[in-house]
Design brief:
By secondary structure, the chain is an alpha/beta fold. Helices cover 46% and strands 17% of the residues.
Length: 280
């Protein structure tokens, strides 16, 4: 497994896959999840793009340094991986916590980002979500990750899909069990300590942006997606009907088609602009 070395010496594991001559696309997962969280995107998106899948610090095959973590540092981890593979810039897609990290990349590393896909994410905390995440942290530390996974799968998949997508719930449990409680808690701390001024800074993002959310997402509801889309100039908002927080699994076909259409359009428009320059 290849690694990049972050500024503090932490090893960040990554994987390159997909079309070798495709446009570069970085994928950043959410709380407690490693790159396996993109299982149902690898094939469809990999047909067209060169994928860089990253294990955030604390999960997967990346190092698990003592916490608390910091989302700004985790955004810098992504840049360290891009530097390691020689990418000056890339399209960036993040889910949940990874969506917040992607927003930070769009604000602080604008020259490294070609476009943004922000999935099932938010730009600030509501009181109820702070209390929920604090409870998750306490459950993980007190009862272990199995206890957390068994109690909280309902936040990932919509109620109508529980029976149909029981393999996804098993995967969710597997992802959770692959995380040490202390590392999970450190990631929760990073989310809870996130800079609340991020919402105001989103107005500075100028790259094409797609905000995508499931209509049944109860963890980061549609209102969160609407707030982000309103804050980023020119951002597009897509709603996947019937999708919950884990809609990249639950409704993978619609999710992938929506993302591909967006990226293909961005890439085509960029190429068209370059071709028109000599005639202007």
């Amino acid at each position: 497994m290849p690694y990049a070395i972050a500024g503090d010496g932490t090893r960040i594991a990554y994987e390159l896959c997909g079309r070798e001559d495709g446009e570069p696309l970085v994928l950043v997962q959410g709380l407690g999840a490693d790159r396996r969280g993109w299982l149902r995107q690898r094939g469809t998106l990999g047909e067209r793009y060169r994928l860089l899948l990253i294990d955030n610090r604390g999960v997967g095959e990346s190092d698990r340094p003592p916490g608390p973590y910091d989302l700004g540092a985790m955004a810098a981890d992504v840049i360290a991986v891009m530097d390691e593979v020689g990418w000056d810039s890339a399209h960036v897609m993040g889910a949940s916590m990874g969506g917040v990290i992607s927003q930070i990349l769009g604000v602080l590393y604008a020259d490294r980002v070609r476009s943004l896909v922000l999935a099932c994410t938010a730009c600030r905390h509501e009181t109820w979500r702070r209390e929920l995440l604090s409870g998750w942290r306490a459950t993980a530390l007190a009862g272990g990750m199995r206890s957390f996974a068994e109690d909280n799968a309902k936040w990932l998949v919509g109620p109508r899909s529980v029976r149909r997508f029981w393999p996804i719930l098993n995967l969710f449990g597997g992802l959770a069990l692959n995380v040490e409680p202390e590392a999970f808690a450190a990631q929760v701390d990073a989310i809870l300590d996130a800079d609340e001024t991020l919402r105001d800074a989103l107005a500075d993002i100028t790259v094409p942006t797609l905000v995508i959310v499931g209509s049944q997402d109860v963890l980061t509801p549609m209102a969160d997606a609407e707030e982000i889309a309103e804050a980023i100039p020119g951002a597009l908002l897509a709603v996947v009907r019937g999708g919950a927080h884990g809609f990249m699994f639950e409704h993978a076909k619609v999710f992938n088609e929506t993302v591909r259409t967006f990226l293909d359009t961005v890439i085509a428009e960029a190429a068209g602009a370059v071709r028109r320059l000599p005639a202007a």
